[in-house]
Amino acid sequence: MRLEGKRAIVTGSNSGIGLGVAEELARAGAEVVINSFTDREEDHALAARIGAEHGVKARYIAADMSKGEDCRALVEKAGGCDILVNNAGIQFVSPVESFPVEKWNAILAINLSSAFHTAAAALPGMRDRGWGRVVNIASAHGLTASPFKSAYVAAKHGVVGLTKTVALECAGQGITANAICPGYVLTPLVEAQIPDQMKVHNMDRDTVIREVMLERQPSRQFATTEQIGGTVVWLCSPYADQVTGTAISVDGGWTAL
Ligand code: NAD
């Protein structure tokens, strides 16, 4: 699948899944816009590295996805986009009755409302060009719940609902909107939790991954950032022209249970 001539914006892409998605889109020939809320030399260097490695144009644009005006400005500064991947996300864990209000508001803003703002800014250009792809990185928690993750689960279910609505509003216009629902993905953040979990449970690496971390993932294997990126690239291919309004699970069977 080649994506030359297409510009992709991936929100929250200076690490983890977003970075993996940006890498796969660049590998497929797309111009990529990398984003996070920081504006460090290393952020711009990361974009330069991806551009050089894959022979594509790559830029880093700082924008805070907790702010609606920043979300819209990101799309504007990029000059619009053909592929919009809403990936930025944060997590916080607490029982509902003691869930800090500021954490609830931040999770809803970054994990859900940002996808509304960026889509609102990007869709007119996609309509003008008669082609577009909106891919929202939801979660297995967009389809199922876990205790103590009220804001995250509410936001991710909201993302799946938003995705369906955008798909219906764009149906037949060359624009598709889909959600990807990963289970546990091996990102640097997850990797960093492994030593602690090994200590807490007094288990070796493989056992703690299989028995503790992937307890809800029947394959007992992490999904990888490359697999999420590859799913995005497939959604951008003509094979997926009629795939719209869906929530695609990449979760080793989690939501089949
Ligand atoms: P991560 O922490 O590595 O990446 C999150 C990205 O979002 C980072 O680039 C961070 O800089 C960015 N970000 C955070 N706040 C931001 C803000 N205010 N403005 C702009 N960017 C911001 O985490 P990840 O695991 O790669 O998660 C990426 C997405 O995938 C999230 O939406 C997450 O909910 C989802 N997801 C992750 C997993 C998993 O197991 N890792 C599973 C399912 C879904």
Question: What descriptors fit this protein?
Answer:
2 domains, seven-stranded parallel β-sheet, alpha/beta, 7 strands, Rossmann fold, binds nicotinamide-adenine-dinucleotide, 257 residues
CATH first level of the largest domain: Alpha Beta
- For the secondary structure, the number of strands is 7
- Gyration radius, in Å: 18 Å
Please state roughly what percent of the residues sit in beta strands, choosing from under 5%, 5-15%, 15-25%, 25-35%, 35-45% or over 45%: 5-15%
The major pleated sheet works out as: 7 strands, parallel
* Structure class: alpha/beta
**CATH superfamily membership of the largest domain, which one?**
NAD(P)-binding Rossmann-like Domain
Q: Name the hetero compounds present.
A: nicotinamide-adenine-dinucleotide
Q: Helix fraction?
A: 40-55%
Distance from N terminus to C terminus (CA atoms, Å) equals 33 Å
CATH architecture group name of the largest domain: 3-Layer(aba) Sandwich
Q: Strand order, main sheet: write it out.
A: 3-2-1-4-5-6-7
Average of per-residue pLDDT values:
97
Low-confidence stretches: none
Number of domains: 2
Looking at CATH, which topology of the largest domain would you report? Answer: Rossmann fold
